[in-house]
Specification:
The chain has 329 residues and is an alpha+beta fold. The protein is 25% helix and 22% strand. The protein has an 8-stranded mixed β-sheet. Strands 5-4-12-11 form a 4-stranded antiparallel β-sheet, with no helix packed on it. A hairpin with a 5-residue loop joins strand 11 and strand 12. The structure holds iron/sulfur cluster (2 copies). The site of one iron/sulfur cluster has 13 residues, from helix 7.
Length: 329
Amino acid sequence: MAVDFIAERDLQRCLNLLRRQGEVHAPLRDTDGMVRFGPLPTGVLPDLTAVRTLLPPKKYLLHPRETILFYQAGSGYQLPSGDVPRLILFGLHPCDLAGINYLDQVFLGNEPDPLYAARRAALTLIGTSCAPDQFCSCHLRPSPLTASCDLFLQQIGGGFVVSCGSSRGVELLETVTELIQERELTPPADTRSFFGQQLPPPPRSELDPALPDWQNLAEQCLGCGACSICCPTCCCFDVLESGGLDGSSAERWRRWDNCLFKSHAQVAGGASFQKDRTQRFRYRYRHKYRGFGQLKRLPSCVGCGRCRAVCPAGLDLRPLAERLEGCAP
Ligand code: SF4
Ligand code: SF4
């Protein structure tokens, strides 16, 4: 079949042309050996062999700590500036694209979050294909989320098969048109197909809070929260307020929170909805694989494998899910 193709040797030129449309950020291997999304310096190629970055791209949409409202006597309440630079995220794998799709549903729903909406509108998403490793589960449990993006580059020997996913993608393709070759070839299996599947049938049973697995798993869990920090869909935050000493100014800010932390479910008076680690562990499981609130029955696990790769206790929920629900997450 005839496809649009960009040769690997033209990737640097392709990135230079894309830079005219915004700053390019991509996966880069640091001196500590970890791969992180960051600004791509001119003349440097992204690491397209890494299976996953340390943090997912949610860091571009939800900052770890940020002010969401200012107050100043005389001028009242003000939202932070909505000026956001245009960014091109290059090298997003299908699971991270599905993760952004999930965050869109949370933050662009009935009442869009203004900070998220401004940043999301300034982002161009360019996906690349990958191959699952031992930590990934995208291929074991297809997700109802979609892995949509503006442009997608399917890696194949010697280059990339290019496809558009939006009108923005069509514009971008025109930007790099001098590099596009028409080739007759059959692209390899597209791992985006693991996403956008029909919802699985409801599990056979409700998850029994008395199951011994919760206790066993929670006893091994250190409560460090690493699995949540690195998850592309974990987006709980805490809201705090602080006032100036003169009493005429104040700010409200939010910071990433973590359902594995004891403080997460604490409310006024010291009461807690998730008193012990077993409850917190079970809560996380249910949220990842069962959804809640408006997104009930929409699993938020996109199978990126980060939680399994970073867990210092080596915890893996797949065997438990297999046994409870008859399928692997
Ligand atoms: S639960 Fe684990 S595998 Fe699933 S999306 Fe989050 S970090 Fe990735
Ligand atoms: S990374 Fe592992 S040890 Fe840390 S909170 Fe998550 S499950 Fe527990």
